[in-house]
Amino acid sequence: MPTRSPYEDEDAAPPLSSRPSAPASPAGGGSARPPSASAGATPSSSPQPVPSPSPTPTPLRFGVCGVLEKIDELETELGQIGIIRYVTSGVTYTAPPASVQPCAWLKHPRDPQRYECLWDVRNSNNLLQLRQAIEQAVQSGEIRQADSPVGDRLDRVVYLLAQHIASLHREGWSAGLICPENVFYKDDGSEVFLADLGFYWKPARGEPPWDAEPGRPEWIEANWTYAWLYSRPPLQQQFACRSFAPPVWEKQPFTPPTPAEDVQTFARLLWWLVVGNDRGPQSLTPFLNLLHAAIEGQVADMADFLAQLERCPPSSHFNRARAVSSRGPSPLGRRTVLLLGAAVLVIGAAGLAYYLLSRTPPEGEDRKIIIPSPEEFAQKPYEEQMKYWRDTYNPQSPLTDEQKATLAKLRCNTLQKVEEKHDELVDKAFDHAERFNVAREFKKLLDDVKLLRSKPVHDPEVEKKEQLWQEIIELRLLELEA
Protein backbone atom coordinates (compact mmCIF):
# COMPACT_ATOMS: atom_id res chain seq x y z
CA MET A 1 0.00 0.00 0.00
CA PRO A 2 1.24 3.56 -0.56
CA THR A 3 2.83 5.40 2.35
CA ARG A 4 0.94 8.57 1.53
CA SER A 5 -2.25 9.14 3.52
CA PRO A 6 -5.39 8.28 1.54
CA TYR A 7 -7.46 10.71 3.62
CA GLU A 8 -6.21 13.88 1.99
CA ASP A 9 -9.75 15.16 1.31
CA GLU A 10 -11.03 14.57 4.86
CA ASP A 11 -10.82 16.93 7.83
CA ALA A 12 -10.17 14.12 10.32
CA ALA A 13 -8.92 10.62 9.71
CA PRO A 14 -8.26 7.57 11.85
CA PRO A 15 -4.64 6.52 12.35
CA LEU A 16 -3.21 4.29 9.66
CA SER A 17 -1.83 0.86 10.42
CA SER A 18 0.86 -0.85 8.39
CA ARG A 19 -0.15 -3.78 6.25
CA PRO A 20 2.28 -6.69 5.93
CA SER A 21 3.58 -7.44 2.46
CA ALA A 22 2.20 -10.99 2.60
CA PRO A 23 -0.88 -12.35 4.41
CA ALA A 24 -0.15 -13.83 7.81
CA SER A 25 -1.13 -17.40 8.59
CA PRO A 26 -3.81 -18.01 11.24
CA ALA A 27 -2.54 -18.89 14.67
CA GLY A 28 -3.21 -22.40 15.84
CA GLY A 29 -4.14 -23.66 12.40
CA GLY A 30 -7.77 -22.62 12.83
CA SER A 31 -9.99 -22.82 9.79
CA ALA A 32 -11.22 -19.42 8.64
CA ARG A 33 -14.45 -19.89 6.66
CA PRO A 34 -16.26 -17.00 4.98
CA PRO A 35 -19.73 -16.67 6.54
CA SER A 36 -22.40 -18.06 4.27
CA ALA A 37 -26.14 -17.52 4.46
CA SER A 38 -26.82 -21.11 3.46
CA ALA A 39 -24.43 -22.51 6.03
CA GLY A 40 -26.04 -20.50 8.82
CA ALA A 41 -22.70 -19.52 10.31
CA THR A 42 -22.98 -17.52 13.53
CA PRO A 43 -20.12 -15.26 14.67
CA SER A 44 -18.75 -15.82 18.11
CA SER A 45 -19.64 -12.28 19.17
CA SER A 46 -22.85 -10.28 18.93
CA PRO A 47 -22.25 -8.21 15.75
CA GLN A 48 -23.96 -9.63 12.68
CA PRO A 49 -23.43 -8.88 8.97
CA VAL A 50 -25.56 -6.00 7.78
CA PRO A 51 -28.43 -7.58 5.78
CA SER A 52 -28.79 -6.89 2.11
CA PRO A 53 -31.83 -4.77 1.23
CA SER A 54 -34.73 -6.71 -0.21
CA PRO A 55 -35.62 -7.53 -2.87
CA THR A 56 -33.03 -5.57 -4.88
CA PRO A 57 -30.61 -2.92 -3.60
CA THR A 58 -30.53 0.58 -4.97
CA PRO A 59 -27.96 0.84 -7.78
CA LEU A 60 -24.52 1.64 -6.40
CA ARG A 61 -21.78 4.02 -7.42
CA PHE A 62 -18.38 4.97 -6.09
CA GLY A 63 -17.16 7.53 -3.56
CA VAL A 64 -14.43 7.88 -0.93
CA CYS A 65 -14.09 5.26 1.77
CA GLY A 66 -10.88 3.91 3.21
CA VAL A 67 -8.21 1.38 2.38
CA LEU A 68 -7.54 -2.15 3.51
CA GLU A 69 -5.42 -1.52 6.56
CA LYS A 70 -3.97 -4.85 7.58
CA ILE A 71 -4.47 -8.58 7.81
CA ASP A 72 -4.61 -9.60 11.45
CA GLU A 73 -6.61 -11.43 14.10
CA LEU A 74 -10.22 -10.26 14.20
CA GLU A 75 -11.95 -9.00 17.33
CA THR A 76 -15.42 -9.85 16.03
CA GLU A 77 -14.27 -13.41 15.34
CA LEU A 78 -11.78 -14.26 18.08
CA GLY A 79 -8.98 -16.54 16.99
CA GLN A 80 -9.67 -15.99 13.28
CA ILE A 81 -7.41 -14.17 10.82
CA GLY A 82 -9.11 -11.78 8.41
CA ILE A 83 -9.01 -8.34 6.82
CA ILE A 84 -9.36 -5.12 8.84
CA ARG A 85 -10.24 -1.79 7.27
CA TYR A 86 -10.89 1.72 8.58
CA VAL A 87 -13.34 4.06 6.87
CA THR A 88 -13.77 7.82 6.88
CA SER A 89 -16.50 9.75 8.63
CA GLY A 90 -19.94 9.32 7.10
CA VAL A 91 -19.18 5.96 5.47
CA THR A 92 -21.47 3.01 6.14
CA TYR A 93 -21.92 -0.44 4.66
CA THR A 94 -24.65 -2.58 3.12
CA ALA A 95 -23.81 -6.21 2.45
CA PRO A 96 -24.12 -7.31 -1.19
CA PRO A 97 -26.46 -10.22 -1.93
CA ALA A 98 -25.16 -13.30 -0.12
CA SER A 99 -25.83 -15.38 -3.23
CA VAL A 100 -23.15 -13.35 -5.06
CA GLN A 101 -20.67 -12.47 -2.32
CA PRO A 102 -21.27 -14.45 0.89
CA CYS A 103 -18.24 -12.98 2.66
CA ALA A 104 -19.57 -9.85 4.41
CA TRP A 105 -17.98 -7.15 6.58
CA LEU A 106 -18.74 -6.84 10.31
CA LYS A 107 -18.78 -3.49 12.06
CA HIS A 108 -16.62 -3.31 15.19
CA PRO A 109 -18.84 -2.96 18.29
CA ARG A 110 -16.68 -0.22 19.88
CA ASP A 111 -14.97 1.49 16.92
CA PRO A 112 -17.53 2.82 14.37
CA GLN A 113 -14.80 3.41 11.78
CA ARG A 114 -13.45 -0.14 11.89
CA TYR A 115 -14.80 -3.03 9.82
CA GLU A 116 -13.62 -6.64 9.83
CA CYS A 117 -14.08 -9.39 7.27
CA LEU A 118 -13.67 -13.12 7.79
CA TRP A 119 -11.94 -13.75 4.47
CA ASP A 120 -9.61 -16.75 4.58
CA VAL A 121 -6.35 -15.10 3.57
CA ARG A 122 -4.48 -18.39 3.45
CA ASN A 123 -3.97 -19.63 -0.09
CA SER A 124 -5.38 -16.41 -1.52
CA ASN A 125 -3.92 -13.44 -3.41
CA ASN A 126 -5.04 -10.23 -5.08
CA LEU A 127 -4.86 -8.99 -8.66
CA LEU A 128 -1.76 -6.90 -8.03
CA GLN A 129 0.09 -10.02 -6.92
CA LEU A 130 -1.22 -11.86 -9.98
CA ARG A 131 0.14 -9.10 -12.24
CA GLN A 132 3.57 -9.46 -10.60
CA ALA A 133 3.47 -13.23 -11.19
CA ILE A 134 2.58 -12.64 -14.86
CA GLU A 135 5.54 -10.27 -15.30
CA GLN A 136 7.92 -12.90 -13.92
CA ALA A 137 6.39 -15.63 -16.11
CA VAL A 138 6.72 -13.43 -19.21
CA GLN A 139 10.40 -12.74 -18.49
CA SER A 140 11.16 -16.43 -18.00
CA GLY A 141 8.98 -17.55 -20.94
CA GLU A 142 7.06 -19.91 -18.67
CA ILE A 143 3.67 -18.38 -19.51
CA ARG A 144 3.98 -19.48 -23.16
CA GLN A 145 4.00 -23.14 -22.19
CA ALA A 146 0.80 -25.15 -22.56
CA ASP A 147 0.96 -26.30 -18.92
CA SER A 148 1.83 -22.88 -17.47
CA PRO A 149 0.38 -22.57 -13.92
CA VAL A 150 0.36 -18.76 -14.21
CA GLY A 151 -1.52 -18.90 -17.52
CA ASP A 152 -4.09 -21.30 -16.07
CA ARG A 153 -4.51 -19.09 -13.00
CA LEU A 154 -4.92 -15.97 -15.17
CA ASP A 155 -7.69 -17.57 -17.26
CA ARG A 156 -9.45 -19.00 -14.23
CA VAL A 157 -9.40 -15.78 -12.16
CA VAL A 158 -10.49 -13.52 -15.04
CA TYR A 159 -13.41 -15.78 -15.96
CA LEU A 160 -14.44 -16.10 -12.30
CA LEU A 161 -14.33 -12.32 -11.82
CA ALA A 162 -16.41 -11.78 -14.97
CA GLN A 163 -18.99 -14.26 -13.67
CA HIS A 164 -19.00 -12.42 -10.33
CA ILE A 165 -19.71 -9.04 -11.99
CA ALA A 166 -22.40 -10.60 -14.21
CA SER A 167 -24.09 -11.98 -11.07
CA LEU A 168 -23.99 -8.51 -9.49
CA HIS A 169 -25.70 -7.06 -12.56
CA ARG A 170 -28.48 -9.65 -12.31
CA GLU A 171 -29.04 -8.54 -8.71
CA GLY A 172 -29.17 -4.84 -9.65
CA TRP A 173 -25.70 -3.94 -8.38
CA SER A 174 -22.71 -2.34 -10.15
CA ALA A 175 -19.05 -3.12 -9.57
CA GLY A 176 -17.82 0.37 -10.49
CA LEU A 177 -14.11 1.15 -10.44
CA ILE A 178 -12.03 -1.82 -9.34
CA CYS A 179 -8.86 -1.46 -7.26
CA PRO A 180 -6.61 -4.49 -7.97
CA GLU A 181 -5.20 -4.66 -4.43
CA ASN A 182 -8.76 -4.95 -3.13
CA VAL A 183 -9.81 -7.79 -5.46
CA PHE A 184 -8.98 -11.11 -3.78
CA TYR A 185 -9.21 -14.62 -5.19
CA LYS A 186 -8.62 -18.11 -3.87
CA ASP A 187 -5.62 -19.81 -5.43
CA ASP A 188 -7.76 -22.82 -6.32
CA GLY A 189 -10.07 -20.56 -8.37
CA SER A 190 -13.11 -21.28 -6.21
CA GLU A 191 -14.03 -17.73 -5.17
CA VAL A 192 -13.34 -14.02 -5.68
CA PHE A 193 -13.99 -11.22 -3.22
CA LEU A 194 -14.50 -7.52 -4.08
CA ALA A 195 -13.45 -5.92 -0.80
CA ASP A 196 -14.77 -2.44 -1.73
CA LEU A 197 -18.27 -3.55 -2.65
CA GLY A 198 -21.08 -2.32 -0.38
CA PHE A 199 -19.41 0.66 1.31
CA TYR A 200 -21.03 4.03 0.69
CA TRP A 201 -21.04 7.59 2.02
CA LYS A 202 -24.19 8.69 3.85
CA PRO A 203 -23.58 11.75 6.02
CA ALA A 204 -26.13 13.38 8.27
CA ARG A 205 -25.27 16.75 6.74
CA GLY A 206 -22.81 18.39 4.41
CA GLU A 207 -21.65 17.59 0.91
CA PRO A 208 -19.68 14.62 -0.43
CA PRO A 209 -15.87 14.91 -0.23
CA TRP A 210 -15.36 14.98 -3.99
CA ASP A 211 -15.81 17.54 -6.73
CA ALA A 212 -16.84 15.56 -9.77
CA GLU A 213 -19.08 12.56 -10.23
CA PRO A 214 -17.48 9.53 -8.55
CA GLY A 215 -16.77 6.38 -10.48
CA ARG A 216 -15.99 8.19 -13.72
CA PRO A 217 -12.77 9.48 -15.29
CA GLU A 218 -13.14 13.16 -14.38
CA TRP A 219 -13.35 12.21 -10.69
CA ILE A 220 -10.02 10.40 -10.68
CA GLU A 221 -7.12 12.23 -9.07
CA ALA A 222 -3.50 12.17 -10.18
CA ASN A 223 -0.28 11.21 -8.40
CA TRP A 224 -1.42 7.74 -7.41
CA THR A 225 -0.78 4.29 -8.78
CA TYR A 226 -2.85 2.39 -11.38
CA ALA A 227 -2.56 4.93 -14.18
CA TRP A 228 -3.67 2.16 -16.52
CA LEU A 229 -7.37 2.63 -15.77
CA TYR A 230 -8.11 6.00 -17.31
CA SER A 231 -4.95 7.89 -18.32
CA ARG A 232 -5.00 9.38 -14.81
CA PRO A 233 -4.73 7.08 -11.78
CA PRO A 234 -7.74 6.65 -9.49
CA LEU A 235 -7.81 6.93 -5.74
CA GLN A 236 -7.31 3.70 -3.89
CA GLN A 237 -10.24 4.35 -1.55
CA GLN A 238 -12.91 3.28 -4.04
CA PHE A 239 -16.18 1.81 -2.92
CA ALA A 240 -19.82 1.53 -3.88
CA CYS A 241 -22.03 4.47 -2.96
CA ARG A 242 -25.84 4.49 -3.02
CA SER A 243 -27.66 7.29 -4.82
CA PHE A 244 -29.92 9.46 -2.69
CA ALA A 245 -32.76 11.80 -3.48
CA PRO A 246 -32.62 15.61 -2.93
CA PRO A 247 -31.96 17.66 -0.88
CA VAL A 248 -28.73 15.81 -0.04
CA TRP A 249 -27.78 15.47 -3.71
CA GLU A 250 -29.60 18.45 -5.19
CA LYS A 251 -26.30 20.16 -6.02
CA GLN A 252 -24.76 17.00 -7.48
CA PRO A 253 -27.40 14.64 -8.92
CA PHE A 254 -25.11 11.66 -9.38
CA THR A 255 -26.13 8.64 -11.39
CA PRO A 256 -24.76 5.16 -10.67
CA PRO A 257 -22.43 3.44 -13.13
CA THR A 258 -24.32 1.31 -15.62
CA PRO A 259 -23.56 -2.34 -16.44
CA ALA A 260 -22.17 -1.12 -19.76
CA GLU A 261 -19.68 1.09 -17.89
CA ASP A 262 -18.74 -1.92 -15.75
CA VAL A 263 -17.84 -3.80 -18.95
CA GLN A 264 -15.60 -0.93 -20.08
CA THR A 265 -13.90 -0.64 -16.68
CA PHE A 266 -13.42 -4.40 -16.48
CA ALA A 267 -11.78 -4.37 -19.93
CA ARG A 268 -9.37 -1.63 -18.83
CA LEU A 269 -8.51 -3.68 -15.75
CA LEU A 270 -7.76 -6.74 -17.90
CA TRP A 271 -5.64 -4.67 -20.27
CA TRP A 272 -3.45 -3.67 -17.32
CA LEU A 273 -3.44 -7.22 -15.94
CA VAL A 274 -2.11 -8.65 -19.23
CA VAL A 275 -0.05 -5.78 -20.67
CA GLY A 276 0.96 -3.85 -17.54
CA ASN A 277 1.69 -0.13 -17.51
CA ASP A 278 3.12 -0.12 -21.05
CA ARG A 279 1.01 2.25 -23.14
CA GLY A 280 3.04 1.83 -26.28
CA PRO A 281 1.69 0.02 -29.35
CA GLN A 282 0.91 -3.62 -28.66
CA SER A 283 0.72 -6.53 -31.06
CA LEU A 284 -2.85 -6.95 -32.27
CA THR A 285 -3.67 -10.25 -30.60
CA PRO A 286 -7.30 -11.41 -30.63
CA PHE A 287 -7.53 -10.89 -26.87
CA LEU A 288 -6.40 -7.25 -27.08
CA ASN A 289 -8.82 -6.74 -29.97
CA LEU A 290 -11.59 -8.01 -27.66
CA LEU A 291 -10.55 -5.60 -24.89
CA HIS A 292 -10.31 -2.69 -27.33
CA ALA A 293 -13.84 -3.42 -28.58
CA ALA A 294 -15.13 -3.58 -24.98
CA ILE A 295 -13.47 -0.28 -24.05
CA GLU A 296 -15.07 1.30 -27.13
CA GLY A 297 -18.51 0.07 -25.97
CA GLN A 298 -18.85 -2.59 -28.68
CA VAL A 299 -19.45 -5.46 -26.22
CA ALA A 300 -23.11 -5.53 -25.22
CA ASP A 301 -22.92 -6.77 -21.63
CA MET A 302 -20.97 -9.00 -19.28
CA ALA A 303 -22.74 -12.11 -20.60
CA ASP A 304 -21.43 -11.30 -24.08
CA PHE A 305 -17.98 -10.65 -22.59
CA LEU A 306 -18.05 -14.06 -20.88
CA ALA A 307 -18.96 -15.82 -24.14
CA GLN A 308 -16.06 -14.16 -25.94
CA LEU A 309 -13.65 -14.95 -23.09
CA GLU A 310 -14.41 -18.64 -23.59
CA ARG A 311 -13.31 -18.38 -27.21
CA CYS A 312 -10.38 -16.06 -26.50
CA PRO A 313 -8.90 -16.54 -22.99
CA PRO A 314 -6.45 -13.96 -21.61
CA SER A 315 -3.45 -16.31 -21.77
CA SER A 316 -3.86 -16.54 -25.56
CA HIS A 317 -2.31 -13.05 -25.72
CA PHE A 318 1.08 -14.62 -24.97
CA ASN A 319 0.87 -17.02 -27.96
CA ARG A 320 0.49 -19.81 -25.49
CA ALA A 321 0.28 -23.33 -26.92
CA ARG A 322 -3.16 -24.61 -26.02
CA ALA A 323 -4.81 -27.98 -26.58
CA VAL A 324 -7.76 -28.18 -28.95
CA SER A 325 -9.92 -29.68 -26.22
CA SER A 326 -9.55 -31.04 -22.72
CA ARG A 327 -9.16 -34.55 -24.15
CA GLY A 328 -6.86 -33.49 -26.98
CA PRO A 329 -7.40 -34.21 -30.69
CA SER A 330 -8.25 -37.73 -31.74
CA PRO A 331 -5.77 -39.72 -33.91
CA LEU A 332 -8.04 -39.15 -36.91
CA GLY A 333 -8.02 -35.43 -36.16
CA ARG A 334 -4.22 -35.33 -36.04
CA ARG A 335 -3.94 -37.17 -39.35
CA THR A 336 -6.43 -34.79 -40.91
CA VAL A 337 -4.47 -31.78 -39.69
CA LEU A 338 -1.21 -33.24 -41.05
CA LEU A 339 -2.77 -33.98 -44.44
CA LEU A 340 -4.24 -30.50 -44.69
CA GLY A 341 -0.90 -28.97 -43.73
CA ALA A 342 0.92 -31.01 -46.37
CA ALA A 343 -1.63 -29.99 -49.00
CA VAL A 344 -1.21 -26.32 -48.12
CA LEU A 345 2.58 -26.63 -48.39
CA VAL A 346 2.36 -28.33 -51.81
CA ILE A 347 -0.07 -25.74 -53.17
CA GLY A 348 2.03 -22.91 -51.78
CA ALA A 349 5.23 -24.29 -53.29
CA ALA A 350 3.56 -24.73 -56.68
CA GLY A 351 2.21 -21.20 -56.58
CA LEU A 352 5.60 -19.77 -55.63
CA ALA A 353 7.31 -21.70 -58.45
CA TYR A 354 4.77 -20.45 -60.98
CA TYR A 355 5.23 -16.88 -59.76
CA LEU A 356 9.01 -17.06 -60.00
CA LEU A 357 8.95 -18.69 -63.44
CA SER A 358 6.44 -16.17 -64.75
CA ARG A 359 8.72 -13.31 -63.60
CA THR A 360 11.82 -14.82 -65.23
CA PRO A 361 12.21 -13.61 -68.83
CA PRO A 362 12.97 -16.18 -71.55
CA GLU A 363 16.64 -16.85 -72.15
CA GLY A 364 18.20 -14.24 -74.42
CA GLU A 365 15.64 -11.57 -73.63
CA ASP A 366 16.22 -8.57 -71.37
CA ARG A 367 14.09 -8.11 -68.29
CA LYS A 368 11.68 -5.23 -68.83
CA ILE A 369 10.78 -3.16 -65.78
CA ILE A 370 7.74 -0.93 -66.09
CA ILE A 371 8.69 2.39 -64.54
CA PRO A 372 5.91 4.98 -64.27
CA SER A 373 6.66 8.49 -65.34
CA PRO A 374 6.69 11.18 -62.62
CA GLU A 375 3.32 12.42 -63.91
CA GLU A 376 1.77 8.92 -63.81
CA PHE A 377 3.35 8.25 -60.43
CA ALA A 378 1.91 11.45 -58.97
CA GLN A 379 -1.63 10.35 -59.92
CA LYS A 380 -1.38 7.14 -57.90
CA PRO A 381 -2.60 7.00 -54.27
CA TYR A 382 0.07 7.49 -51.65
CA GLU A 383 -0.11 3.86 -50.49
CA GLU A 384 0.51 2.61 -54.05
CA GLN A 385 3.50 4.92 -54.37
CA MET A 386 5.06 3.50 -51.19
CA LYS A 387 4.27 -0.05 -52.29
CA TYR A 388 6.06 0.59 -55.59
CA TRP A 389 9.27 1.50 -53.78
CA ARG A 390 9.01 -1.38 -51.33
CA ASP A 391 8.50 -3.91 -54.14
CA THR A 392 10.74 -2.66 -56.95
CA TYR A 393 13.67 -0.80 -55.47
CA ASN A 394 16.93 -2.77 -55.55
CA PRO A 395 19.78 -1.10 -53.63
CA GLN A 396 22.29 -3.06 -55.76
CA SER A 397 21.08 -1.46 -59.00
CA PRO A 398 21.49 2.20 -59.90
CA LEU A 399 18.37 4.32 -60.20
CA THR A 400 17.20 5.38 -63.62
CA ASP A 401 16.44 9.01 -64.31
CA GLU A 402 12.70 8.24 -64.19
CA GLN A 403 13.07 6.55 -60.80
CA LYS A 404 15.07 9.45 -59.41
CA ALA A 405 12.36 11.87 -60.50
CA THR A 406 9.51 9.83 -59.03
CA LEU A 407 11.46 9.29 -55.80
CA ALA A 408 12.07 13.02 -55.44
CA LYS A 409 8.34 13.65 -55.82
CA LEU A 410 7.48 10.93 -53.31
CA ARG A 411 9.89 12.25 -50.67
CA CYS A 412 8.25 15.66 -50.83
CA ASN A 413 4.78 14.11 -50.64
CA THR A 414 5.80 12.03 -47.62
CA LEU A 415 7.22 14.99 -45.73
CA GLN A 416 4.04 16.95 -46.44
CA LYS A 417 1.92 14.05 -45.19
CA VAL A 418 3.99 13.73 -42.00
CA GLU A 419 3.68 17.44 -41.26
CA GLU A 420 -0.10 17.35 -41.77
CA LYS A 421 -0.64 14.23 -39.65
CA HIS A 422 1.66 15.12 -36.76
CA ASP A 423 -0.47 17.78 -35.04
CA GLU A 424 -3.66 15.81 -35.67
CA LEU A 425 -2.21 12.70 -34.02
CA VAL A 426 -0.83 14.66 -31.06
CA ASP A 427 -4.32 16.06 -30.39
CA LYS A 428 -5.87 12.60 -30.61
CA ALA A 429 -3.32 11.21 -28.15
CA PHE A 430 -4.99 13.12 -25.29
CA ASP A 431 -7.94 10.73 -25.64
CA HIS A 432 -6.82 7.56 -23.87
CA ALA A 433 -9.07 5.38 -26.02
CA GLU A 434 -7.27 6.66 -29.14
CA ARG A 435 -3.70 6.25 -27.91
CA PHE A 436 -3.33 2.79 -29.41
CA ASN A 437 -4.49 3.97 -32.86
CA VAL A 438 -2.28 7.07 -32.61
CA ALA A 439 0.79 4.96 -31.85
CA ARG A 440 -0.02 2.68 -34.77
CA GLU A 441 -0.31 5.63 -37.19
CA PHE A 442 2.93 7.17 -35.90
CA LYS A 443 4.66 3.81 -36.38
CA LYS A 444 3.45 3.65 -39.98
CA LEU A 445 4.71 7.17 -40.71
CA LEU A 446 8.05 6.24 -39.17
CA ASP A 447 8.33 3.18 -41.43
CA ASP A 448 7.62 5.33 -44.49
CA VAL A 449 10.28 7.88 -43.55
CA LYS A 450 12.85 5.14 -42.85
CA LEU A 451 12.09 3.50 -46.20
CA LEU A 452 12.75 6.73 -48.09
CA ARG A 453 15.90 7.45 -46.10
CA SER A 454 17.30 4.10 -47.25
CA LYS A 455 17.29 5.40 -50.84
CA PRO A 456 20.13 7.47 -52.32
CA VAL A 457 20.23 11.07 -51.14
CA HIS A 458 19.02 13.39 -53.87
CA ASP A 459 18.76 16.63 -51.90
CA PRO A 460 20.66 17.42 -48.67
CA GLU A 461 17.87 19.72 -47.45
CA VAL A 462 15.22 17.05 -47.91
CA GLU A 463 17.46 14.50 -46.23
CA LYS A 464 17.88 16.83 -43.26
CA LYS A 465 14.10 17.24 -42.92
CA GLU A 466 13.58 13.48 -43.15
CA GLN A 467 16.08 12.90 -40.35
CA LEU A 468 14.41 15.57 -38.21
CA TRP A 469 10.94 14.07 -38.66
CA GLN A 470 12.24 10.59 -37.95
CA GLU A 471 13.62 11.81 -34.61
CA ILE A 472 10.35 13.63 -33.80
CA ILE A 473 8.18 10.58 -34.50
CA GLU A 474 10.48 8.33 -32.48
CA LEU A 475 10.13 10.80 -29.60
CA ARG A 476 6.31 10.72 -29.89
CA LEU A 477 6.33 6.92 -29.72
CA LEU A 478 8.50 7.07 -26.60
CA GLU A 479 6.03 9.52 -25.03
CA LEU A 480 3.16 7.16 -25.77
CA GLU A 481 5.07 4.32 -24.11
CA ALA A 482 5.98 6.38 -21.00
TrEMBL record:
This is Protein kinase domain-containing protein. Residues 46-58 have a biased composition (Pro residues). Residues 13-45 have a biased composition (Low complexity). Residues 1-58 are annotated as: Disordered. Keywords: Membrane, Transmembrane, Transmembrane helix. The chain crosses the membrane at residues 337-357.
